[in-house]
Fold:
Amino acid sequence: MKKFFNARLYYYRNLKHYMLMPIRNRVGLLALSILFSCSLVLIYGQQADAAVSAQDLQKSLAVQLFYDPLLKTGYFLKEGNYLSFAADQPYLALDFRQIVKVSAPYHREGVLLFPPDARRAVENYYSAKQKETEGKYSVAAILIDPGHGGKDTGAVAELGTVKLFEKNLTLAVSKRVIQLLSERYPNRKILTTREGDSYPTLDQRVEMANSIPLKPSQAVIYVSIHANASFNKNAKGFEVWYLNPEYRRTVVDATTVQEKGKDIAPILNAMLEEEFTTESIILARKVYDRLGSLIGDASPGRGIRAEEWFVVRNAKMPSILIEMGFITNPEEGLLLADSVYLRKIADAIYNGIVDFIEHFER
Structure:
């Protein structure tokens, strides 16, 4: 209580002193006090607004964020471009090539915050990377096609107590591939012909791919995933197929034919068709090599092959069909029944697609 009365006494004494001042002094002191208060609000307000959490920065830039709270190190990733950082360290590493000095990211109440200049450095880096890719050829969409589905079970095999349906295996692998691609490429269209046990027709699958809207510098790739079967129980191994180069198809749309004329359209069609075939072979090779590196010790590679599958020959884009193994082979069938083995196949397909995109764009 005594402290309370002392505080009141101090307040009234100073108030009396203030009231006895000349009016111009009182006005000046009051203005100075207001200006000082506003300055504090402005300074601390700007700092609070400008510092941004790593999670908010991740969302605003549509990048991936990886952070180890024990080591206090992490990185942002977008389209293969890395920006590394460490808490309480005043540096950013850009693609492991360039070091930029900034105010150190820091923790406050368990949240990792980037000071204003560090935040701007991250934003400027990814903005510059985006400008570099504008106007260049890029893969804007990837369509993953899990073979069969619904009433169409695909190949069926009974291996003791294990019964395998091709449609289930292709869906499991496709979901994993789609998940990985969506995480790596949040700004691209990662599509699928089916998400569950449904049966889109072959025409519907191809139409889905061909109807994806694209800019002139953008491309889409089509990957159809299957499992093999044979009356020969010893048949074993994985394959990747692409369209036979000798097969002729129409890839130039009717609008182009009308604009360029009937004499020019066939020439453009042949050029574009050859380009699609070349890119399909490269995509097939990338996926095949990755499958070999991840499952080659358990399943032999049977080669890259040319064929005129419906979904491949009617897709107006780089397209491949993957046969991930024979469910009718006693050994390989049991492997394909193992979820860990299917993850390896999915990871190989994903990495092969990433390899192709980096080749195509760079």
